[in-house]
Amino acid sequence: GNGVVHIITKRGDYTKSRPTTITIRNEFGKSFLNSDYPLTDHHYWGMSFGRRDKDILDIEYINNPANAADSLNHRFQKLVADNDYSVLYDHIKEVYKSQPFYSNYISISHSSDIFRIYSSFGNKNFPGIVTNAGSINRKSFRLNVDFIPDSRLTLQVSSSYSSSESTKSTERSRINNIHSSVLMLEPNYTIKETVEPGEYVNDFEDPWQNSFYNPIFFLEQEWDDDINRRYLSGHVKLNYKILDWLTINGQYTIDRTDYDYQYYIPTGHRSFGWFGPSKSSGSYEIDRSINMYQGGILGVRGEYEFGRLTTRLGIQYRYEESHHEGLGGSGFDF
């Protein structure tokens, strides 16, 4: 999953002056499969006494009773074990590939007696280990400004913006059953088998009539299943002392989240079907939403002393707005 944690901390000591500091950091690396699953090289079904699917032959029964329930029990109890596969294909190495990732970061900070600024930008790109399944890209920007020229005026600005782009596909979506197919399909099947030049086999059926999708078939298809998220947060605070006894203060806050999902299948895309792969006539689906809150405060505060009597008067105006907007639609047969 993806998420963003936004933390705004207290300001430091304004009285300390520091020179301008620029920080640049770049990171590069490669992603690897965390665990290497061992490849089985033996099977527990027999290679004689009848013919089943393709070159896979039926298992051997020992003391096969007439009763069907007993026969089923004996089928699993008396399986012929430790039969070598005639050929082995490592599906994990064929589907999961080491891919490079990178991140970039730059920040600028400056501090003086009356002015302080900090700004940063970050960019991260992680393609993962499943080839042609999309990557996660995240960008973030931050700006903090403090301006205090004298005891009468104080201006503070704090803001951040982040965006992320990723593929929505999960085990229940367009790359359906990739991981389970890789782990469960027996190693004597080659997932790179083609039915015609440039087109991989759609699915497989093992001796027990279990169907498995071919992950290579799906990953080679052209389709978009993307989620774009954007998040904006900002706060501005102003205090201005017009007279010794009169002060104007104001604040403004905004918090906005944009969600943009699109699912696009071009004409000619081949998808799984019970009677073999079928060509799509094209389809498009969108789901967009905006959630925003903004609010502000504008006030005037006065304080005046009449001898031993202190009089305080304050007037304040508050503004708040919550907004939600959504859009969805779909179409097909382009």
The largest beta-sheet arranges its strands as 1-4-5-6-7-12-13-16-17
Mean of pLDDT: 79
State the end-to-end distance: 33 Å
Please, how many helices?
4
Can you put this structure into words, describing what you see?
This protein starts with 17 loop residues before the first strand and ends with a strand. The strands form five sheets. The chain has a nine-stranded antiparallel sheet, with no helix packed on it. Strands 2-3 form a two-stranded antiparallel sheet. The protein has a two-stranded antiparallel ribbon with strand order 8-9. The longest helix has 10 residues, at 68-77. The chain is mainly β and 334 residues long. A hairpin with a 3-residue loop joins strand 4 (99-111) and strand 5. It has four helices and 17 strands. It is 8% helix and 52% strand.
Strands, helices and their partners?
Layout (H helix, E strand, L loop, with lengths): L17 E14 L10 E2 L24 H10 L5 E2 L6 H5 L3 E13 L3 E12 L9 E12 L5 E15 L10 H7 L9 E3 L2 E2 L2 E3 L5 E3 L1 H5 L4 E20 L2 E20 L4 E2 L6 E2 L3 E24 L2 E24 L2
Antiparallel strand pairs: 1-4, 2-3, 4-5, 5-6, 6-7, 7-12, 8-9, 10-11, 12-13, 13-16, 14-15, 16-17
In brief, what are we looking at here?
It contains four helices and 17 strands. It is mainly beta. It is elongated and about 105 Å long.
